[in-house]
Amino acid sequence: MSQRRTGRRPGKQDTREEILAAARDTFADHGYESASIRRIATRAGVDPALVHHYFGTKEDLFRAAAAAPIDPATFFPQIWAGDPEGLGERIVRAFLGVWEDPETGPAIRATVRRAVADERSAVLLREFFATLVVRRIVHELGADKTPEEGALRASLVASQLFGVALGRYLLRLQPLADLPVETIVTAIAPTVQRYLTADLAGLPG
Hints:
CATH topology of the largest domain: Tetracycline Repressor, domain 2
Mean pLDDT: 86
CATH superfamily of the largest domain: Tetracycline Repressor, domain 2
Helix content: 55-70%
Shape: globular
Oligomer: single chain
Number of helices: 10
Largest sheet: none
Structural class: mainly alpha
Number of domains: 2
């Protein structure tokens, strides 16, 4: 059996999709941090420069592979615009805003439905949200004294936010589905804040 050729090749029309497929597999198998552009290029059988040509940075490629409907950079300014004690509230409001928005809402619903049905898609969504969003926030706060602590805080925040989103937007649990957004923000923001900044020894486990 002949091995798949590596190295640079012409940028034919299906090359972009081949790179994207290789990226999905590599990010799902190794996680965001360990999935290098070179490793993805090798899996796709192309030169790393071609990956950059089609997708730009590793983060851009990851967003495309995860079919992420948002760019975290667009709402980070909103999250950081205030004191640290209100961070949980701002995160919840920004997160729910994505689901409520008429443009991004349908896209994120489709992404989550796909993740529920497909394990690989679930891994990509988890990596995207936990690594590129929450762990970045935790790191900026200086709350990740160890990588393990950062991962734990990120997973706790993600479980809270996605649990509410699933109940409200996909399962349509009542009365959660019809509550005003501000009511939900008030209810869960203290828990998110605790997950971000409290002593982990004092958190429910």
